Each structure stands twice: as structure tokens, then as C-alpha cells.
Amino acid sequence: MKKILTYGTFDLLHVGHINLLRRAKALGDYLVVAVSTDEFNAIKNKKAYYSYEDRKTILEALKYVDEVIPENNWEQKIEDVQAHQIDTFVMGHDWEGKFDFLKDYCEVIYLPRTEGISTTKIKEDLNALV
Ligand code: C2G
Fold it and tell me: Which of the 8 DSSP states describes residue 1?
């Protein structure tokens, strides 16, 4: 069974996230998504609209996602790859090169981002409506 791993906040789930998750799943048989906890988002200077629990529940409902685990820090990726026996690590190409250290442990693939959509854009567009 080929296992895939990816990380993210996945707040205000949108088609850019779905495209990434669908393509990540298509690379193997089982997709593990490590979702940033609210505490880790604070470290990333991100404030998610939905709580970690809600973002986890939403992802677990997706047909492309087989398992959701917490992302607590920047340092856990090697341990996650080993503990979950991951074959391929996937991220959007805005992270190109940032996780190449994982190449010693698994395949590393950066996928093109979906243009024109982001959680930040959603928030800005909604604020403009008020
Ligand atoms: N993404 C995408 N296209 C978009 C928006 C996001 O392909 N239009 C991808 C990102 O490249 C990432 C994933 O969707 O691979 C999740 O995006 P975010 O929730 O913004 O994740 P991020 O804050 O980049 O967290 O340790 C890694 C970090 O946790 C990544």
C-alpha cells in the first residue's frame, strides 16, 4: 500500500485544497493529512477561522483523505514519515525546495498551486462585501 503525506492549515476549505488533496491521493493508495493545530498556526502567524477540531472533521469527511493527524511543529515531519511508513510527501509548489531534506526518507513531490483562490483571498473578498 503506497502511503502519501501532506501538511497544511486547510482553513475555509476551497477548490485549491481539494485539487491538492485529489492529486496527492492519486499518487498512491492512502493519504495522511497533517493539519496544523491552532497553537502551530499561531507559530505560523496564521489565525484560522475554523478550530483544529472543525478543520479535522471537515477533512475526514473527504473521500480523498484516509487519516488526519495533528501538525504541532516544524520539526515533526521526519518522525511522521517514519512512524506512518510514508512513501511520498506532497506539498503545493509554494513550498518548492523547503522540504527536500525529506528526500532521504521518502519521495518528495511539489504540485502546482491552484491559481486565483486562497483562504486569504476569501477573507478579503468577504470583508469587501460588508
Ligand atoms: N494550496 C494549493 N492551491 C491553493 C491554495 C493552497 O495547492 N490555491 C495547497 C498549498 O500549497 C498546501 C495545501 O494546499 O500544500 C494547504 O494549504 P494551506 O492550508 O495554506 O497550508 P500552509 O499554511 O501552506 O501550511 O508544514 C507545512 C505547513 O503546515 C503548510
Answer: -
Question: What's the DSSP call for residue 26?
Answer: T
Cα 129 to ligand 1 centroid, rounded to whole Å: 25
The grid coordinates listed for 33 are: 493529512
* 11, 17, 93: residue to mutate for ligand 1 pocket, most atoms within 8 A of CB: 17
The Cα–Cα gap between 56 and 37 comes to: 9
Closest by Cα among 64, 81, 72, 68 to 36: 72
Q: Which three cell numbers mark 20?
A: 491538492
Q: Hey, what amino acid is at 66?
A: D
Q: What is the reported pLDDT for 130? A: 86
Nearest atom in ligand 1 to the alpha carbon of residue 91 is 15
pLDDT tens per residue, range 49-91: 999 999 999 999 999 999 999 999 999 999 999 999 999 999 9
Pocket test for ligand 1, best of 14, 41, 77, 94 (most atoms within 8 A of CB): 94
